[in-house]
Design goal:
The protein has one domain: Vaccinia Virus protein VP39 (Rossmann fold, 3-Layer(aba) Sandwich). It is built from 9 helices and 9 strands. The mean pLDDT is 96. The protein is globular and about 55 Å long. 41% of the residues lie in helices and 17% in strands. Helix 4 links the parallel strand 4 and strand 5 (102-105).
Length: 239
């Protein structure tokens, strides 16, 4: 992994082009999640990745860093709001020497993804961490699924939020996806894990369909695509 990762997590700072220090947390992913991404990419030999939401570039450092470490792979990051993050996501990719294998698209995902589809692009790893409204998340998944290879992996972030959790449940209930057990909470105190579960249960106590995702302390759900879409025209399962 790039030395920059160690530096950022140790100092808990990122820097803009003028050298101004900014705390990237809690907006950025936990180190355990980034390391889980890198391990998953290496173990499954995934070579073409995409993420929705670049921010300060922490997830991209892990994902693109895993490609570079193996000497194989490329990454696409979609983020129309780099100005809001002082362009630090792009700067961090340059600082880590990962800009040559990473394409940053600074347009909304609902514009970028159809364009990538029209180009015939294919991916085998996707991280959905953009706008956390249900419709935006579902649209991201819809287009990613059309470009995701069978055997590829899609990750829904922030399943503590009802909207993201519902979009993930739609994929699990209505599409050919199976959950991949990935542990990202190593080192997280037990009371913090318990609090995550309790918050989800309290915030939405009457819905039992998404109970499997409520009962996990993980902040993400990782799904493997097992088949291309072959639903009947009127298929629908409650989620």
């Amino acid at each position: 992994m790039p030395e920059l990762i160690d530096k950022i997590y140790k100092e808990r700072q990122v820097h803009d082009a003028d050298g101004k220090a900014i705390n990237p947390f809690p907006a950025s992913i936990r180190r355990g999640l980034g390391e889980a991404f890198a391990e998953l990419i290496a173990e499954r030999n995934l070579t073409s990745s995409i993420e929705i939401g670049l921010a300060y570039g922490m997830s991209a450092l892990f994902i693109a860093g895993a490609h570079k470490q193996r000497g194989n792979g490329s990454h696409v990051a979609v983020d129309p709001g780099q100005d809001n993050y002082h362009n630090i996501g792009k700067l961090n990719l340059e600082r880590a020497g990962l800009d040559s294998i990473t394409e940053v698209l600074e347009v909304p995902s609902y514009e970028a993804l159809p364009a990538l589809l029209s180009e015939g692009r294919r991916f085998d790893f996707a991280f959905i961490d953009g706008m956390h409204l249900f419709d935006f998340t579902l649209v991201d998944f819809f287009y990613i699924d059309l470009m995701l290879d069978v055997g590829g992996v899609v990750v829904f972030d922030d399943i503590g939020m009802k909207a993201c959790r519902s979009a993930a449940m739609y994929a699990m209930k209505n599409r050919s996806y199976e959950r991949v057990p990935v542990k990202t909470t190593a080192g997280v105190p037990i009371h913090v894990k318990a609090a995550r579960v309790v918050r989800k249960l309290i915030s939405d106590p009457f819905s039992l369909r998404d109970l499997p995702l409520k009962l996990t302390a993980e902040g993400v759900v990782v799904l493997e695509k097992t088949a291309d879409d072959n639903r009947a025209y009127d298929h629908h399962k409650l989620f």
